[in-house]
Write a structure and sequence with these properties.
By secondary structure, the protein is an all-alpha fold. It has helices at 32-41, 63-74, 82-98, 103-110, 115-129.
């Protein structure tokens, strides 16, 4: 779930590591189908409200989420485990995210006919067609 905005990160101290060492950066592309399947397994209700409009939402990671992400990134050390375990850990990460403050926005992402899905589709279309000449739509002024 991305709006393709440039982002910068700077690692800070990490209390999970006994000694400072190089860090890994990973990207998990959320799959709406995985989120939808998880929502079906859950009761689908969540009393929290959606956060206000904004380009980026940030929330702290819980210890359970950190554990799942570390196990997921750790699969890079054991490539033979990637195929049987990666999808399961990714599903756990999505489950943990649904239970976090990001849950309401992820629920919207998972709903195919949600406002978030329509905005995502419009943004993707604009991104693909931004360089094309603009066509006049009936009833709108031309350039």
């Amino acid at each position: 779930m991305s709006s393709r905005k440039p982002r910068t990160a700077r690692p800070s101290s990490c209390s999970l590591l006994p000694v400072p060492r190089p860090y890994r950066s990973v990207v998990l592309r959320l799959d709406g189908r995985v989120l939808s399947d998880l929502l079906l397994e859950l009761d689908g209700t969540d009393p929290r409200t959606l956060p206000g409009p904004g380009g980026q939402i940030v929330a702290p990671m819980t210890p359970d989420l950190i554990d799942a992400v570390i196990r997921w990134a750790g699969l890079l050390d054991t490539p033979q485990d990637i195929r049987p375990l990666a999808a399961r850990i990714e599903s756990e990460i999505c489950y943990r995210l649904l239970g976090s403050p990001l849950g309401p926005i992820l629920r919207q992402f998972a709903l195919a006919d949600s406002g978030t899905a329509r905005v995502r589709a419009a943004a993707a279309w604009i991104s693909e067609h931004y360089a094309e000449p603009r066509r006049n739509v009936q009833g709108t002024p031309g350039p």
